[in-house]
Amino acid sequence: MAKISSDKLWELAAAEVQSVENGGAEEGGGEAVGERTVFLMGSKAGGKTSILLRCLDRDEPAKPTLALEYTFGRRATGHNTPKDIAHLWELGGGTSLSDLVQIPITPASIRSLSVILVLDLSSPNALWGTMEKLMQAAQVQVEKAASQVMQDEKSRAGSKHQTSVSSATRVLPKDYPDRELISPFPVPLLIVGSKYDRFQEFSSDQRKVVSKTLRFVAHYHAASLIFTSIKSESQMSKTKSFFSRLAFNVETSKTISCDSSKPLIIPAGADSFSQIGSPPTTNVDIASLHARNPKDLWKKVFEHIFPPESLSEQKELKDPAKDPQYSEPQIDAMRAQKDQELEEYKKNAAKSWKGLELDT
User: Fold this and answer.
1) 224 phi and psi, to 5 degrees?
2) pTM value?
3) What is the rounded average pLDDT for all residues in the chain?
4) Rounded CA gap, 208 and 204, in Å?
5) Which residues contact 168 (CB under 8 A, 6 or more apart)?
6) By the 8 A CB rule, do 81 and 154 touch?
7) Spatial distance between the Cα atoms of 31 and 47, rounded to a whole number of angstroms
8) 319 exposed, middle or buried (CB, 10 Å; 0-12, 13-18, 19+)?
């Protein structure tokens, strides 16, 4: 075996590092070849965990997600070849823990990141608020991470190679439908309408409003859209196809369904504003809504038909320890006792400080 000099070894090592920094990983961002990150968020108790387990072919009961949970999936690409790895993060608690998006969305994961937003179709009154808050939280964090990538690239390349935030996020093809009229989500986005079996019990007019609205939102943000139910093998099979595209870069089915009387299946770029049409305005005076832009108009029409929950009804628990689904009677009783003791201590401490102030 030929002996390699130490100088040559350093050259090889430097070349390897340069290769990784120049995009040796499939989608860059500091992760190894074949590694992707998928972040699931959405409606509280909307079925995120159940959908994820089915997509991973894991036969185990779904448990409530506490805060933010991590798992991974692997897929063999061929005989005697390394398996592709998908890092899978799931946010629990609906919108109450949206601050945790900063954990899975980082400069290291940004170029291989995809987001799945699961929306409970059986609770349309909470749908827009959940969608809006979570998408905004994720987008702000994506842009923050992309900005950090840009700064890092500038510092490494100096003034010779100026980069932009878009280098770390999506760039749509020039022939993308309505390209000049939409606001693409900065990373690939899949919107999943869950609990379609319950959604079928709604009136045809209600289903049409929800379907058209989500079609508009998905197209406006260059996202894919699919309706599903864990009770339907056929629907879950199609959902798994979309998931595998994001997690393992597997080619998806060519099936498209835009019929509001059936489960929607619309890959990104397969819809258009002309096909979607205008907001369903039955018994709604558009002129009185004072919308600032098309998306705001759709929101106002949707919330006119499905009024958002009142503040008292949608009060979210910031502290998971106070969430009834995680109750533990003995622990909760001890916690209540300690909380009471703490309040008594605070009162006594306050009295002591007031006494000291008077003495002086």
Assistant:
1) -85, 155
2) 0.77
3) 83
4) 6
5) 28, 29, 107, 110, 111, 145, 146, 149, 150
6) no
7) 29
8) exposed
